[in-house]
């Protein structure tokens, strides 16, 4: 046991630099999960209706990944259910069933949408014309990843009572796409559908804006995007500039670097706010490592990440640098304004929010079991430790927990696989007492990355 602890601590203090793996999940769950009983009753209704011969299908991309989605389609505060499945009674035809609750609380099934292709890529439920009824957008996967088509389905009549079960969702629009995003960009109560097309062979990188009115779905505008993106990773919407909602598109390059482009809508036009023409390596948002945009401080404004190298890593290979993530707001003019910094350890799955008071004399060391923040003093010679985060495999931590704690570490969090411990150090030797953290401040600054 003593040996285990010694090994852990030696390896923590050793200055072993690790490469970084990309372990990012973009399953951002927007809605709370339904009660299991509700889900079961929808499944039962569905299996009864189809005689059991169906296989539920999860959408493979986007934010909504459940095979059965609960959504209030007609705005009466009562959720309907939309289920994606293959119907084995009809040669595995891909279908989407719409279920609603009748007056006695029983799930009733409408005639299904019959899909195109062999898999469900992405789904969304926008209210494209702002009438209070939601349309259904489904991206269907065809023969290859290049042949994805989205369809927009609209209810044939007002939807108020689903025609007593005779209501039908009709396909009103069909288009190719790579990713799509739904957001009310101009905040007029009607959602816009924005599609992204990325095709290297065709040298195409484009965003398109679609709206729905009495004449159907029409393309309002399109804008050309940076040409060297390899893949679109995520679209995030929120405030991007003064009073204006927009979409930030995160794109990756071959090799794992990422960059972002921001889109806003002005008078029905899609406007690209920054980004690049030519190589995105010159983009202001370019980052060597994989980082995705988020509203990191949860205030409605979207922050775009860039990376800065901590002190002392000038001669270290880029992939071995423990990058600090700087989160930036777009100032509506020309600049990205930093609002906060975090250290994101993608491999060990945690984030430490760095206090604003920390200047660039605070740096960090990393090994495969954690990190230590230190203040560099006396022209880079002296290093004074501020805090440590120690990450121990659960199987080891179960045995050594008591001893780890006896060495001054306290538990920050635990997951299925790891225990996370923190330790703070006395401020006496720091240039400023405020560079130091209390255990409570560290607990506050620490979070798990999922
Ligand atoms: Ca409803
Ligand atoms: Ca709108
Ligand atoms: Ca924010």
From TrEMBL:
PROSITE patterns named among the record's database cross-references: PROKAR_LIPOPROTEIN (PS51257)
SUPFAM superfamilies hit by this protein: Integrin alpha N-terminal domain
Protein name per its UniProtKB record: Repeat domain-containing protein
Organism field: Acidaminobacter hydrogenoformans DSM 2784
């Amino acid at each position: 046991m003593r040996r285990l602890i010694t090994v852990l601590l030696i390896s923590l203090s050793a200055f072993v630099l690790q490469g970084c793996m990309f372990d990012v999940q973009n399953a951002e769950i927007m809605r709370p999960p339904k009660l299991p009983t509700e889900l079961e009753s929808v499944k039962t209704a569905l299996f009864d209706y189809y005689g059991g011969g169906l296989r539920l299908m999860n959408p493979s991309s986007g934010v909504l990944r459940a095979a059965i989605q609960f959504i209030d389609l007609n705005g009466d505060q009562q959720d309907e259910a939309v289920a994606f499945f293959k119907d084995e009674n009809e040669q595995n035809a891909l279908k989407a069933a719409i279920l609603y609750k009748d007056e006695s609380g029983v799930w009733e099934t409408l005639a299904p949408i019959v899909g195109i292709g062999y898999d469900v890529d992405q789904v969304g439920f926008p209210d494209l014309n702002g009438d209070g009824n939601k349309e259904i957008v489904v991206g269907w996967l065809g023969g290859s990843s290049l042949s994805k088509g989205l369809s927009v389905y609209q209810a044939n009549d007002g939807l108020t009572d689903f025609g007593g079960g005779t209501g039908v969702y009709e396909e009103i629009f069909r288009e190719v796409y790579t990713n799509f995003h739904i957001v009310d960009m101009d905040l007029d109560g009607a959602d816009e559908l924005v599609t992204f097309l990325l095709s290297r062979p065709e040298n195409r990188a484009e965003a398109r804006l679609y709206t729905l009115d009495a004449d159907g779905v029409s393309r309002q505008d399109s804008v050309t995007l940076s040409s060297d993106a390899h893949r679109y990773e995520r679209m995030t919407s929120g405030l991007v500039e003064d009073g204006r909602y927009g979409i930030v598109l995160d794109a990756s390059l071959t090799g794992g670097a990422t960059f972002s482009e921001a889109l806003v809508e002005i008078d029905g036009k899609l406007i690209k706010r920054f980004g690049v023409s030519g190589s995105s390596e010159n983009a202001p948002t370019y980052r060597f490592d994989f980082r995705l945009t988020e509203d990191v401080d949860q205030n409605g404004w979207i922050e775009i990440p860039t990376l800065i190298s901590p002190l002392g890593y000038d001669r270290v290979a880029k992939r071995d640098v423990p990058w600090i993530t700087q989160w930036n707001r777009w100032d509506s003019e020309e600049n990205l304004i930093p609002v906060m910094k975090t250290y994101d350890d993608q491999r060990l799955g945690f984030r430490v929010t760095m206090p604003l008071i920390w200047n660039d004399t605070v740096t960090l060391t990393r090994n495969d079991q954690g990190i230590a923040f230190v203040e560099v003093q006396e022209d880079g010679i002296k290093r004074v430790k501020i805090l440590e985060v120690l990450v121990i495999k659960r199987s080891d931590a179960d045995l050594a927990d008591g001893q780890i704690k006896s060495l001054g570490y306290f538990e920050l969090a635990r997951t299925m696989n790891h225990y996370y411990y923190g330790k703070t150090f006395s401020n006496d030797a720091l240039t400023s007492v405020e560079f130091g953290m209390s255990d409570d401040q560290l607990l506050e600054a620490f979070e798990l990355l999922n």
